[in-house]
Amino acid sequence: MLGKQLRLADGVRNAEGRVEIFHDGYWGTVCDDYWDIKDAQVVCRELGYREAIAAPKRALFGEGNGHIWLSNVHCLGNESSIEDCKHAEWNANSYCYHFEDASVICYNETGSLGRLMFLLPDHSLSNQKNHYGCVFPPKCNGQCMVVDLVT
Ligand SMILES: [Ca+2]
């Protein structure tokens, strides 16, 4: 069932997108409360990527729909599945909305060496210097976007 219970939706490129989980017969999303790079790490590895580069919050790749299955995800980073991480009860999402959907940007084997991270205000790319502690390489904890350098 691996790969069928977890997917990335609406990414601009491969290896990124809104995290969606199949549970109880329906695809749903993950709330970004306590969403961080360790949680993204588990998702990326579960999907077969080497590691996570960023753990974007606030529906960076757009809002999902249906259930918000998981919230308060507390991964240590070495779990084999996000479902093994500590989290709130399934569907206990009274304080979460789809504009808070969690996303990941995973390390993609190709093109990952020449990248810059930008702060992403209002979901649009910006040339602003980031103020959220985004660093390269290769980790990012905040609202950042990874952009391939044109070389
Ligand atoms: Ca977390």
- Helix-strand pattern, N to C? EEEHEEEEE
Overall spatial form: globular
Total of helices: 1
Count of DSSP strands: 8
CATH level-4 homologous superfamily: SRCR-like domain
Q: Report the portion of residues in β strands.
A: 15-25%
Mean pLDDT: 76
Largest sheet: 6 strands, mixed
Distance between the termini: 39 Å
CATH architecture: Roll
Question: What is the CATH class designation?
Answer: Alpha Beta
Give structural notes.
There is one protein chain. The protein has one helix at 37-46, and strands at 6-9, 16-23, 26-30, 52-54, 68-70, 103-106, 115-119, 144-148. It contains one helix and eight strands. Strands 1, 2, 3, 4, 5 and 6 form a six-stranded mixed β-sheet that branches. It has one domain: Roll (Mac-2 Binding Protein), CATH 3.10.250.10. By secondary structure, it is mainly beta. Strand 2 (16-23) and strand 3 (26-30) form a beta hairpin. Calcium ion is lined by residues 34-36, 38-39, 73-75.
Using brief descriptors, characterize the structure shown.
Mac-2 Binding Protein; six-stranded mixed beta sheet; 25% strand; 151 residues; binds calcium ion; two-stranded antiparallel sheet; mainly beta
Sum this structure up briefly:
With 151 residues, this protein is mostly beta strands.
